[in-house]
Design brief:
Helix content of chain B: under 10%
Structural class of chain A: mainly beta
Mean pLDDT of chain B: 92
Order of helices and strands of chain A: EEEEEEEEEEE
Number of helices of chain B: 0
Oligomer: heterodimer
Distance between the termini of chain A: 31 Å
Structural class of chain B: mainly beta
Low-confidence stretches of chain B: none
Number of strands of chain A: 11
Radius of gyration of chain A: 13 Å
Strand content of chain A: over 45%
Helix content of chain A: under 10%
Largest sheet of chain B: 6 strands, mixed
Strand content of chain B: over 45%
Protein backbone atom coordinates (compact mmCIF):
# COMPACT_ATOMS: atom_id res chain seq x y z
CA UNK A 1 0.00 0.00 0.00
CA UNK A 2 1.13 3.52 -0.79
CA UNK A 3 -0.63 5.43 1.97
CA UNK A 4 -2.65 7.37 -0.58
CA UNK A 5 -6.34 6.76 -0.09
CA UNK A 6 -9.18 7.75 -2.35
CA UNK A 7 -12.92 7.80 -1.83
CA UNK A 8 -15.29 6.62 -2.99
CA UNK A 9 -13.97 3.60 -4.86
CA UNK A 10 -16.88 3.50 -7.28
CA UNK A 11 -19.48 6.06 -8.27
CA UNK A 12 -22.32 6.24 -10.76
CA UNK A 13 -23.62 9.64 -11.81
CA UNK A 14 -26.05 10.96 -14.38
CA UNK A 15 -24.98 13.22 -17.22
CA UNK A 16 -25.16 16.86 -16.15
CA UNK A 17 -24.59 16.16 -12.48
CA UNK A 18 -21.62 17.23 -10.40
CA UNK A 19 -19.20 14.97 -8.56
CA UNK A 20 -16.56 15.36 -5.87
CA UNK A 21 -13.77 12.86 -5.43
CA UNK A 22 -11.47 12.85 -2.43
CA UNK A 23 -7.86 11.98 -1.79
CA UNK A 24 -5.72 11.73 1.32
CA UNK A 25 -2.06 12.05 0.54
CA UNK A 26 0.75 10.02 2.01
CA UNK A 27 2.12 11.32 5.29
CA UNK A 28 4.79 13.96 4.70
CA UNK A 29 3.70 14.69 1.12
CA UNK A 30 2.63 18.23 0.29
CA UNK A 31 1.89 17.81 -3.40
CA UNK A 32 -1.12 16.11 -4.94
CA UNK A 33 -1.76 15.43 -8.61
CA UNK A 34 -4.90 14.13 -10.27
CA UNK A 35 -5.04 11.93 -13.34
CA UNK A 36 -7.82 10.58 -15.54
CA UNK A 37 -7.38 7.07 -16.91
CA UNK A 38 -9.87 6.12 -19.59
CA UNK A 39 -10.35 2.46 -20.40
CA UNK A 40 -7.37 1.08 -22.31
CA UNK A 41 -5.37 4.29 -21.98
CA UNK A 42 -2.59 5.62 -19.84
CA UNK A 43 -3.32 8.16 -17.12
CA UNK A 44 -3.67 11.76 -18.29
CA UNK A 45 -2.62 14.65 -16.07
CA UNK A 46 -5.46 16.87 -14.92
CA UNK A 47 -3.74 19.22 -12.45
CA UNK A 48 -1.40 19.43 -9.51
CA UNK A 49 -1.76 21.17 -6.15
CA UNK A 50 1.12 22.30 -4.00
CA UNK A 51 0.52 23.91 -0.62
CA UNK A 52 -3.14 24.56 -1.42
CA UNK A 53 -2.55 26.21 -4.79
CA UNK A 54 -2.92 24.84 -8.29
CA UNK A 55 0.49 25.00 -9.91
CA UNK A 56 0.09 23.00 -13.10
CA UNK A 57 -2.78 21.96 -15.32
CA UNK A 58 -3.25 19.59 -18.20
CA UNK A 59 -5.60 19.86 -21.16
CA UNK A 60 -8.86 19.66 -19.24
CA UNK A 61 -11.74 22.16 -19.31
CA UNK A 62 -12.53 24.49 -16.39
CA UNK A 63 -15.39 22.29 -15.24
CA UNK A 64 -12.61 20.15 -13.75
CA UNK A 65 -11.53 21.94 -10.60
CA UNK A 66 -9.85 21.07 -7.38
CA UNK A 67 -8.90 22.01 -3.88
CA UNK A 68 -6.10 21.18 -1.53
CA UNK A 69 -6.57 21.56 2.21
CA UNK A 70 -4.08 22.54 4.94
CA UNK A 71 -3.55 18.86 5.76
CA UNK A 72 -2.65 18.36 2.06
CA UNK A 73 -5.67 16.21 1.30
CA UNK A 74 -7.40 17.11 -1.92
CA UNK A 75 -10.67 17.10 -3.82
CA UNK A 76 -11.40 16.85 -7.51
CA UNK A 77 -14.68 18.39 -8.61
CA UNK A 78 -16.24 17.82 -11.99
CA UNK A 79 -19.27 19.86 -13.03
CA UNK A 80 -21.76 19.20 -15.82
CA UNK A 81 -20.70 15.58 -16.18
CA UNK A 82 -20.46 14.15 -19.68
CA UNK A 83 -20.50 10.51 -20.75
CA UNK A 84 -16.82 10.80 -21.74
CA UNK A 85 -15.92 11.65 -18.15
CA UNK A 86 -16.41 7.97 -17.32
CA UNK A 87 -12.94 6.83 -16.25
CA UNK A 88 -10.71 5.85 -13.37
CA UNK A 89 -9.57 8.96 -11.51
CA UNK A 90 -6.22 8.61 -9.85
CA UNK A 91 -4.69 10.71 -7.15
CA UNK A 92 -0.94 10.78 -6.65
CA UNK A 93 1.02 12.38 -3.87
CA UNK A 94 4.65 13.35 -3.78
CA UNK A 95 7.06 14.97 -1.40
CA UNK A 96 7.50 18.11 -3.45
CA UNK A 97 6.22 19.70 -6.62
CA UNK A 98 7.63 19.00 -10.03
CA UNK A 99 9.80 16.05 -10.91
CA UNK A 100 9.75 13.52 -8.17
CA UNK A 101 8.43 10.07 -7.43
CA UNK A 102 4.66 9.98 -7.19
CA UNK A 103 2.68 7.47 -5.16
CA UNK A 104 -0.74 6.57 -6.48
CA UNK A 105 -3.98 5.68 -4.80
CA UNK A 106 -6.24 2.91 -6.05
CA UNK A 107 -8.49 5.34 -7.82
CA UNK A 108 -12.17 6.16 -8.06
CA UNK A 109 -14.07 4.48 -10.88
CA UNK A 110 -16.61 7.03 -12.15
CA UNK A 111 -19.38 5.93 -14.49
CA UNK A 112 -21.56 8.58 -16.09
CA UNK A 113 -24.86 7.35 -17.51
CA UNK B 1 4.20 17.93 -29.24
CA UNK B 2 5.55 16.05 -26.26
CA UNK B 3 4.57 12.40 -26.30
CA UNK B 4 5.38 8.98 -24.93
CA UNK B 5 5.05 5.93 -27.18
CA UNK B 6 4.89 2.34 -26.09
CA UNK B 7 5.32 0.07 -29.05
CA UNK B 8 3.57 -3.06 -27.88
CA UNK B 9 -0.01 -2.85 -26.65
CA UNK B 10 -0.42 -6.54 -25.88
CA UNK B 11 2.32 -9.04 -25.17
CA UNK B 12 1.88 -12.73 -24.38
CA UNK B 13 4.85 -14.69 -23.07
CA UNK B 14 5.44 -18.06 -21.53
CA UNK B 15 6.98 -18.28 -18.08
CA UNK B 16 10.80 -18.01 -18.13
CA UNK B 17 10.78 -16.10 -21.41
CA UNK B 18 12.67 -12.83 -21.61
CA UNK B 19 10.79 -9.55 -21.75
CA UNK B 20 11.55 -6.26 -23.41
CA UNK B 21 8.96 -3.48 -23.60
CA UNK B 22 9.76 -0.49 -25.72
CA UNK B 23 9.26 3.14 -24.72
CA UNK B 24 10.18 6.20 -26.73
CA UNK B 25 9.56 9.81 -25.87
CA UNK B 26 9.70 13.11 -27.67
CA UNK B 27 10.86 15.79 -25.27
CA UNK B 28 13.56 18.39 -25.44
CA UNK B 29 15.85 18.96 -22.55
CA UNK B 30 16.38 16.98 -19.39
CA UNK B 31 13.85 14.31 -18.54
CA UNK B 32 13.03 11.98 -15.70
CA UNK B 33 11.84 8.53 -16.74
CA UNK B 34 9.65 6.01 -14.99
CA UNK B 35 8.09 2.62 -15.43
CA UNK B 36 4.94 1.91 -13.47
CA UNK B 37 3.08 -1.39 -13.18
CA UNK B 38 -0.61 -1.92 -12.50
CA UNK B 39 -1.50 -5.41 -11.34
CA UNK B 40 -5.15 -6.41 -11.76
CA UNK B 41 -7.26 -4.57 -9.21
CA UNK B 42 -4.31 -2.78 -7.67
CA UNK B 43 -2.88 0.73 -7.71
CA UNK B 44 -0.10 1.95 -9.95
CA UNK B 45 3.26 1.00 -8.47
CA UNK B 46 6.66 2.33 -9.35
CA UNK B 47 8.93 -0.32 -10.88
CA UNK B 48 11.95 1.87 -11.45
CA UNK B 49 13.01 5.41 -12.24
CA UNK B 50 15.83 7.28 -13.91
CA UNK B 51 16.76 10.82 -12.93
CA UNK B 52 20.48 10.94 -13.73
CA UNK B 53 23.68 8.92 -13.56
CA UNK B 54 24.06 5.32 -14.69
CA UNK B 55 21.67 4.86 -17.62
CA UNK B 56 21.06 1.24 -16.66
CA UNK B 57 18.68 1.25 -13.73
CA UNK B 58 17.49 -1.67 -11.69
CA UNK B 59 14.08 -1.79 -10.13
CA UNK B 60 11.97 -4.09 -8.07
CA UNK B 61 11.11 -7.69 -8.90
CA UNK B 62 14.10 -8.19 -11.21
CA UNK B 63 13.17 -5.49 -13.72
CA UNK B 64 15.69 -3.16 -15.28
CA UNK B 65 15.61 -0.41 -17.87
CA UNK B 66 18.17 1.33 -20.03
CA UNK B 67 18.06 5.00 -20.89
CA UNK B 68 19.52 5.65 -24.34
CA UNK B 69 19.54 9.40 -24.75
CA UNK B 70 20.44 9.36 -28.45
CA UNK B 71 17.44 7.17 -29.20
CA UNK B 72 15.04 8.91 -26.77
CA UNK B 73 14.29 5.46 -25.40
CA UNK B 74 13.80 3.85 -22.01
CA UNK B 75 13.09 0.16 -22.61
CA UNK B 76 12.06 -2.15 -19.81
CA UNK B 77 13.61 -5.61 -19.54
CA UNK B 78 13.38 -8.73 -17.45
CA UNK B 79 15.45 -11.84 -18.21
CA UNK B 80 12.85 -14.36 -17.07
CA UNK B 81 9.19 -13.50 -16.50
CA UNK B 82 6.88 -15.18 -14.04
CA UNK B 83 3.13 -15.69 -14.11
CA UNK B 84 2.87 -13.04 -11.37
CA UNK B 85 4.26 -10.43 -13.79
CA UNK B 86 0.92 -10.43 -15.61
CA UNK B 87 -0.07 -6.77 -15.45
CA UNK B 88 -0.32 -3.48 -17.32
CA UNK B 89 2.98 -1.63 -17.71
CA UNK B 90 3.23 2.11 -18.23
CA UNK B 91 6.17 4.20 -19.25
CA UNK B 92 6.06 7.80 -18.00
CA UNK B 93 8.17 10.88 -18.61
CA UNK B 94 8.50 14.08 -16.66
CA UNK B 95 10.53 16.98 -17.89
CA UNK B 96 12.60 18.86 -15.34
CA UNK B 97 10.59 21.99 -15.98
CA UNK B 98 7.20 20.32 -15.80
CA UNK B 99 4.75 19.19 -13.18
CA UNK B 100 3.06 16.32 -14.92
CA UNK B 101 3.90 12.72 -15.50
CA UNK B 102 3.11 11.99 -19.13
CA UNK B 103 2.20 8.37 -19.61
CA UNK B 104 2.26 6.09 -22.59
CA UNK B 105 -0.86 4.10 -23.43
CA UNK B 106 0.44 1.06 -21.62
CA UNK B 107 1.36 -2.50 -22.51
CA UNK B 108 -0.74 -5.37 -21.30
CA UNK B 109 1.47 -8.34 -20.45
CA UNK B 110 0.04 -11.83 -20.07
CA UNK B 111 2.39 -14.53 -18.83
CA UNK B 112 1.15 -18.05 -19.37
CA UNK B 113 2.23 -21.00 -17.23
Amino acid sequence: ETGVTQSPTHLIKTRGQQVTLRCSSQSGHNTVSWYQQALGQGPQFIFQYYREEENGRGNFPPRFSGLQFPNYSSELNVNALELDDSALYLCASSARQGNTEAFFGQGTRLTVV
Amino acid sequence: AQSVSQHNHHVILSEAASLELGCNYSYGGTVNLFWYVQYPGQHLQLLLKYFSGDPLVKGIKGFEAEFIKSKFSFNLRKPSVQWSDTAEYFCAVNSNSGYALNFGKGTSLLVTP
